[in-house]
């Protein structure tokens, strides 16, 4: 990730599915986090020809483009690449905020690259970008109970117990995203991987 001094833009993508039916789903936590970041800067998303809703702002002292793809999760790659190309943003400056089955609920982990762990949104982005080397902000949603299919689990709303902590957890994830953008990966990991 480029230093804040160069003021090259960073693209922060929240993953989710569009439409009211999916708003409170576990799969839409990426949208919740970028919505929180937008609220912090007092901005509103606008439909962009790249295939996403975008908001240009400053985040962590840097020029940032917040984005929510207007496609369904499994085909997020097209809108991400379209938006990145429009703003001339390199894959190394792309940050994707997404739900993560392999982390306990509300655990936040930051990383660069790696596999997609069966996450079809990430798979689509990796294929479209032509690389897995982009930054990820992973919000833990835990594993499904019993024998529930993970595909069904991610499309369910957060439980009543989870919803009690959700606003605080989303706020924490937004803090981590802002630190990643402003301070870089290692510094942000040192701050947020201790919890």
UniProtKB/TrEMBL annotation:
Keywords in alphabetical order: Cytoplasm, Hydrolase, RNA-binding, tRNA-binding
Reaction equations catalysed: an N-acyl-L-alpha-aminoacyl-tRNA + H2O = an N-acyl-L-amino acid + a tRNA + H(+)
Entry's Gene Ontology BP terms: protein quality control for misfolded or incompletely synthesized proteins; rescue of stalled ribosome
SUPFAM superfamilies for the chain: Peptidyl-tRNA hydrolase-like (SSF53178)
EC assignment: 3.1.1.29
InterPro entries: Pept_tRNA_hydro, Pept_tRNA_hydro_CS, Pept_tRNA_hydro_sf
Site keyed Stabilizes the basic form of H active site to accept a proton: positions: 99
Any Pfam family matching the protein: Pept_tRNA_hydro
Residues annotated for tRNA binding in this entry: 22, 72, 74, 120
Signal peptide (from-to): none
Residues forming the catalytic site: 27
Annotated Gene Ontology cellular component terms: cytoplasm
Gene3D superfamilies for the chain: Peptidyl-tRNA hydrolase (3.40.50.1470)
Entry similarity comment: Belongs to the PTH family.
Oligomer status and interactors: Monomer.
Protein name, UniProt field: Peptidyl-tRNA hydrolase
Organism listed in the record: Actinophytocola algeriensis
Highest classification ranks of the organism: Bacteria, Bacillati, Actinomycetota, Actinomycetes, Pseudonocardiales
């Amino acid at each position: 990730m480029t230093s804040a001094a160069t003021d090259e833009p960073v693209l922060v993508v929240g993953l989710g599915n569009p439409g009211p039916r999916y708003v409170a789903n576990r799969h839409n936590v990426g949208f919740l986090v970028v919505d929180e970041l937008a609220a912090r800067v007092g901005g509103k998303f606008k439909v962009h020809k790249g295939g996403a809703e975008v908001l240009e702002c400053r985040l962590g002292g840097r020029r940032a483009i917040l984005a929510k793809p207007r496609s369904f999760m499994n085909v997020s790659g097209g809108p991400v690449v379209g938006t990145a190309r429009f703003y001339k943003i390199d894959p190394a400056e792309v940050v994707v905020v997404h739900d993560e089955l392999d982390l306990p609920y509300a655990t936040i982990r930051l990383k660069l690259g790696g596999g997609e762990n069966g996450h079809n949104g990430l798979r689509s982005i990796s294929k479209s970008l032509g690389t897995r080397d982009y930054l990820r902000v992973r919000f833990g949603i835990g594993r499904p109970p019993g024998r529930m299919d993970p595909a069904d689990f991610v499309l369910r709303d957060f439980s009543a117990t989870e919803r009690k902590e959700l606003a605080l957890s989303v706020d924490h994830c937004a803090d981590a995203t802002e630190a990643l953008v402003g301070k870089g990966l290692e510094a942000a990991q040192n701050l947020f991987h201790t919890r």
